[in-house]
Design a protein that fits this description.
Blueprint: E1 2-6, E2 9-14, E3 20-21, E4 27-28, E5 36-37, E6 40-44, H1 53-80, H2 83-88, H3 91-105
Antiparallel strand pairs: 1-2, 1-6, 3-4, 5-6
């Protein structure tokens, strides 16, 4: 990956070897590190910095929320959003599914989230 610089400021990332559209309207190919013309130059992109602890925690939170959302879509929605299935359930079974859904939604509010997650138990259908 390359970076297009203008007066030593990064203005966009560019795939090496591809076409390069400059802000002034000029177009060049192939994009190669070391090219320069006037205020523009192409350099190898700097490596991504190592993730911080906060970055890792944020990624873990995001992954756990994605897992939770997948359960809501694949398991809960087909039950709660199906009027025929819902109407056939007993009041107790409806309460179980409502509680399960609420517990899934509350996963991020668990005391030790995201280090420890207690996934609620899915009710029988």
């Amino acid at each position: 990956m390359l970076v297009l610089m203008q007066d030593n400021n990064i203005i966009q990332t560019v795939k090496e070897g591809g076409w390069l559209d400059l802000p002034n309207g000029d177009r060049m190919s192939p994009a190669v590190a070391g090219w320069s013309s006037g205020p523009y130059s192409l350099r190898t992109a700097p490596p991504d910095p190592d993730p911080t602890e906060d970055d890792l925690v944020a990624e873990l939170c995001s992954n756990l929320r994605t897992q939770r959302d997948a359960l809501l879509v694949a398991v809960v929605d087909p039950v709660l959003c199906n009027p025929v299935r819902w109407a056939e359930m007993t009041t107790a079974k409806k309460a179980e599914w409502t509680t399960y859904r609420r517990a899934l939604l509350d996963v991020p509010q668990q005391t030790k989230f995201p280090e420890t997650v207690v996934w609620p138990e899915q009710p029988s259908k």
